[in-house]
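Re: that chain you flagged

S.,

Sorry for the slow reply, it's been a week of failed gels. I finally had a moment to sit down with the sequence you sent. For the record, here it is as I used it:
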Amino acid sequence: MAETALTKAMAPALPKLDVDALEDALRAAKATGKVDPKVIAKAEAKLEQARKRRDVIELGPKREAAEKALREIMATAPFDLNAMKNAITEAEEQKVSPGLLEAAKAKCAEQELTEAMERGVEERERLQKALDAAKAAGVNDSVIRGAERRLSAAWSV
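Prediction finished late last night. Pasting the structure tokens below so you have them in one place:
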């Protein structure tokens, strides 16, 4: 009787991917304690398939949009790092292909490194100018030597 009720409840719900109805039917069948565990297992498998199909249908357009946004940002150079990071986050949430995500993360890391190196060169030049100005102004030699050591140590690889 409980197995029949489960089967009858699942029959119309499966094609519609009505996950709520499937869950209710499965819960009711389990509550009776009279349904064969094999039937329960089969119903649970069908429920999981319905969830996956529903997710593909519902998330498909969002996934495609996230993938498109990510590809568009990757195609520009240099790109806006914040926009890229936001696009990566959205792509992760929408379960965009791992290969595309890894490529985007690599491009993001590459640009971050490039920008950091550019800032580093600018910073080194600024510090060097300050050191030169200090020398020209007659700052104590021990202070100059200490600054030169720090500058050299900070920028050596």
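What I noticed first: The chain has a mean pLDDT of 85.

Talk soon,
D.
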